[in-house]
């Protein structure tokens, strides 16, 4: 059998070597997978993992929003394969890296909100439909519009997620369906290297603003769990679930995996606050003027009412007075006023946005994930290569030595 290897261009491997190949790698060999959302954070890590694990995958179709396939290919290059995340794969493949990508990855222009995924070329579409064995949908928008509150949901994000899951359940036909529900996703724990993250998202907005001295108080319960999970653990669970459920594909079950840390290895809001303070005390942020930003112990408001009262008395009311002064002075302080107004609104939005999470006392039921781990062990899947056990995380070490440094290193 002929396969590529990292060291050699192409080699023949014997049946014995084939047997030694990781179980999941063997499963992926020759498979055709459609992946959506690959310009985003999570799917990018998924694509990298598949290519690193099994370059002999048959084909990865990446559905990307673009005007045509040429622009989609440009996005594949600019926003996916040329990112720092692909450094290890690029180093391993050296001058053959571009060849690996062009021979295995096909960028297709489309949009999941359109009929036929918005793929205009009917011939390509038919070809894809006949070849694709696994569809991994990671595309999504993280819009937290407030309208959903009217219907009793915390935000449109969870509301539309619930609707999406219901629709899939209804229309999946006899296909096996796996739903992955990660909690807040953070930087890579180990693979392809620790600390890779893209953009400042979820809880990291708090970390960055606190470190830069723009935020000195938070809203939350000391004893609540901050349920975060590193992105490579989410991807590892996705890949293993893919293998396990593909083998079981005659059974058109629907399985939900909560990929979280709250039940096995909870990190308290109070711990997180402590880690942030320690980190920024030891590694203070230096602003563009060369000033060292000193952080103090952040005040934690444990009741939302108190927080919003504090914000109104300390900031919103004085700003209203300042607004009047500005009008009386013929808009002389307009710039300062606009700036302060923007900052206060941002803090209030941030607080409102995270309120359902920083006061959340629930723990996600991850028994299905535990079961997946047992199945993986029984099948001899390499649990180091596919680690998704949050118990293996030392939060202090991860937050202080991996996550926050990675966040600042890869901040856009
Ligand atoms: N990040 C987290 O903490 C977290 C936690 C739990 C669940 N999730 C879920 O995981 C998924 C991926 O999250 P992420 O953090 O990777 O998000 P992300 O970085 O914002 O990426 C979202 C991706 O979806 C694509 N997309 C959006 N609408 C699309 C459409 N109509 N057609 C095709 N592609 C579309 C985006 O493409 P463009 O580049 O064209 O915009 C982008 O590639 C989402 O469903 C998210 O809700 C994320």
From TrEMBL:
First-level EC class: oxidoreductase
The protein's matches in SUPFAM superfamilies, at most eight in alphabetical order, are given as: NAD(P)-binding Rossmann-fold domains
Among InterPro entries, the record links this protein to: FAR, FAR_C, FAR_NAD-bd, NAD(P)-bd_dom_sf
Which residue intervals define the domain Fatty acyl-CoA reductase C-terminal in the entry?
Answer: 315-408
Give the EC number(s) under which this enzyme is classified.
1.2.1.84
Could you list the residue ranges forming a coiled coil in this record?
Answer: none
Organism domain of life: Eukaryota
Q: What keywords is this UniProt entry annotated with?
A: Lipid biosynthesis, Lipid metabolism, NADP, Oxidoreductase
Q: Does the keyword Lyase apply?
A: no
Acetylation in keyword set: no
**What's its catalytic activity?**
a long-chain fatty acyl-CoA + 2 NADPH + 2 H(+) = a long-chain primary fatty alcohol + 2 NADP(+) + CoA
Residue ranges constituting the Thioester reductase (TE) domain according to the UniProt record = 35-148
Known role: Catalyzes the reduction of fatty acyl-CoA to fatty alcohols.
What protein family is recorded?
A: Belongs to the fatty acyl-CoA reductase family.
Q: What is this protein called?
A: Fatty acyl-CoA reductase
Supply the source organism's classification. Eukaryota, Viridiplantae, Streptophyta, Embryophyta, Tracheophyta
């Amino acid at each position: 059998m002929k396969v590529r290897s990292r060291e050699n261009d192409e080699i023949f491997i014997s049946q014995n070597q084939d047997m030694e190949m990781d179980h999941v790698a063997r499963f992926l060999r020759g498979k055709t997978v459609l992946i959506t959302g690959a310009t985003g954070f999570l799917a990018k890590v998924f694509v990298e993992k598949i290519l690193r694990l099994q370059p002999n995958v048959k084909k990865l179709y990446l559905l990307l929003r673009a005007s045509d396939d040429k622009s989609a290919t440009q996005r594949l290059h600019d926003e996916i394969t040329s990112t720092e995340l692909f450094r290890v794969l690029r180093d391993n493949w050296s001058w053959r890296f571009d060849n690996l990508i062009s021979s295995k990855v096909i960028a297709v222009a489309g949009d999941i909100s359109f009929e036929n995924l918005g793929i205009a070329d009917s011939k390509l579409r038919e070809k894809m439909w006949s070849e694709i064995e696994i569809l991994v949908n990671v595309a999504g928008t993280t819009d937290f519009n407030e309208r959903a509150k009217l219907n009793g949901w915390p935000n449109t994000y969870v509301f539309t997620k619930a609707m999406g899951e219901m629709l899939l359940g209804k229309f999946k036909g006899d296909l096996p369906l796996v739903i992955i529900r990660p909690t807040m996703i953070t930087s890579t724990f180990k693979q392809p290297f620790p600390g890779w993250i893209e953009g400042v998202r979820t809880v990291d907005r708090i970390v960055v603003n606190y470190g830069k001295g723009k935020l000195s108080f938070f809203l939350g319960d000391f004893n609540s769990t901050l349920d975060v999970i590193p992105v490579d653990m989410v991807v590892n669970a996705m890949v293993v679930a893919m293998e396990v459920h593909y083998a079981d594909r005659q059974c058109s079950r629907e399985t939900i995996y909560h990929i979280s840390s709250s039940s096995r290895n909870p990190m308290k809001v109070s711990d997180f606050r402590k880690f942030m303070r320690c980190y920024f005390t030891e590694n203070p942020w230096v602003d563009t003027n060369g000033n060292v930003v000193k952080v103090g112990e952040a005040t934690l408001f444990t009741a939302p009412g108190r927080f919003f009262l504090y914000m109104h008395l300390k900031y919103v009311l004085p700003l209203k007075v300042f607004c009047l002064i500005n009008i009386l002075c013929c808009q002389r302080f307009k710039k300062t006023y606009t700036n302060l107004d923007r900052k206060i609104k941002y803090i209030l939005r941030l607080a409102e946005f995270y309120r359902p999470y920083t006061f959340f006392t629930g723990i996600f039921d991850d028994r299905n994930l535990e079961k997946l781990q047992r199945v993986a062990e029984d099948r001899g899947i390499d649990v180091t290569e596919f680690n998704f056990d949050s118990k293996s995380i030392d939060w202090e070490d991860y937050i202080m030595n991996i996550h926050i440094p990675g966040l600042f290193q890869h901040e856009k």
